[in-house]
Amino acid sequence: MSQQNQPSDQDRLLDHEYDGIKEYDNPMPRWWLATFWVTIIFSLIYLLNVPGIGVGKGRIAEYEATMAAAAAEAAKHDPLAGLTTETLVAIAQDPAKQALGKATFATMCSSCHAADGGGLIGPNLTDAYWIHGGQPMDILKTVNAGVLDKGMPAWGKVLKPDQLLAVASYVTTLLGSTPKAPKPPQGVRADSAAAPPPAG
User: Fold this and answer.
1) What's the pLDDT at 195?
2) In terms of DSSP H, where are the helices of 27-176?
3) Residue 117 CB-density burial (10 A; 0-12 exposed, 13-18 middle, 19+ buried)
């Protein structure tokens, strides 16, 4: 555009005036206009995925689906997935696995429960009274998740899966044994809790 065809400052003045001040007709910068249109386009796309308005299931449904997929993936690596009481009973009857469980108990658990399971800082594991359940699966869950508010770590994060299962099944064999200095009973009596047959 030649110098002669360019609008003069006088041509760019708007018709309104306030306190003797006039305003130039300055167009918005292109980057601002581009951003403005992008936000409008985004809002239209967003509305299409709002339940009741658009065709999508919505952001909450997408979030829940993502969380469900993550939980399913985590379950594949969960050492407790698919386990039953029968599984733990079978482990308790396997001499090699019981030897692993006993060794793991001596290393990780005896400082709180005593080497014979009679209880020190932790409760007595040989009587019929249990704080967190005395069934084999209850014991496994307690060993796996720990009792953090009482100082028992989540052993599932420390032990290998075979150690975790072996030590939990070993604990089930302590029921009814005679420790040297048993700690008084704690928790609720679980008469239905029964020790599996000893290995051998």
Assistant:
1) 47
2) 30-47, 59-76, 85-92, 95-108, 110-113, 136-145, 161-173
3) buried
Residue 12 has pLDDT above 80, yes or no: no
Of the listed ranges 53-62, 63-72, 111-120, the one predicted with least confidence: 53-62
CATH code linked to domain 85-189: 1.10.760.10
Whole-number Å distance between alpha carbons of 108 and 104 = 6
Question: Domain residue spans in the chain?
Answer: 9-76, 85-189
Angle formed by the axes of helices 136-145 and 85-92, nearest 10°: 90
CA-wise closest residue to 168 among 74, 76, 77, 80:
80
- pLDDT for the residue 196: 46
Note the Cα 192 to chain centre separation in Å: 31
- State the distance between the two ends of the chain, measured CA to CA, in whole angstroms: 101
Give the residues across from 147 on adjacent strands: 152
136 has pLDDT over 70: yes
> Identity (one letter) of the amino acid at 122?
G
Question: What pLDDT was estimated at residue 1?
Answer: 47
